[in-house]
Amino acid sequence: MTVRNLEKVDFGKGLVPAVVQDAETNQVLMLAYVNGEALDRMLEEGRTWFYSRSRRKLWNKGETSGNYQNLVSIDADCDGDALLLRVIPEGPACHTGAVSCFFTNIFEREGG
Fold it and tell me: What residues contact 9, with CB distance under 8 A and at least 6 apart?
């Protein structure tokens, strides 16, 4: 495991959004928020950790469901204010049981 460029992550507002993507299928699974402590836990344990804005505490994805997400890579965007987590999931990402949290279509161009 190689860790580098941590100083590029901008926690200026405390939290950064993290897009979670299946490393094998490239499907976007979920969006959550990460603080410095959650990032440290991910790097230590190799599984996803997030900060719950509603519960105001850290949570490990899978701690209650068993649907853990094993980290493959973490990339920061060009500004350092968003993360892309590529994972190998051990089950569905969504609390509804859906593989991805993104299943409600809002718009789709016809013929596109």
Answer: 16, 39, 76, 80, 83
- The amino acid at 10: D
pTM for this one?
0.90
Residue 71: which residues within 8 A CB-CB, separation 6 or more? Answer: 42, 46, 47, 48, 85, 86, 87
How many CB atoms sit inside 10 A of residue 62's CB? Answer: 17
Write out pLDDT tens, residues 35-51.
999 999 999 999 999 99
Residue 106 belongs to a domain:
no
Residue 9 lies in a domain: no
- Give the chain's domain count: 1
Question: What's the pLDDT score for residue 1?
Answer: 66
Question: Nearest CA to 72 among 51, 86, 92?
Answer: 86
> Which residues make beta-bridge pairs with 28?
21
- Is the confidence at residue 4, as pLDDT, over 70? no
8 is a domain residue: no
Domain that holds residue 51: 15-89
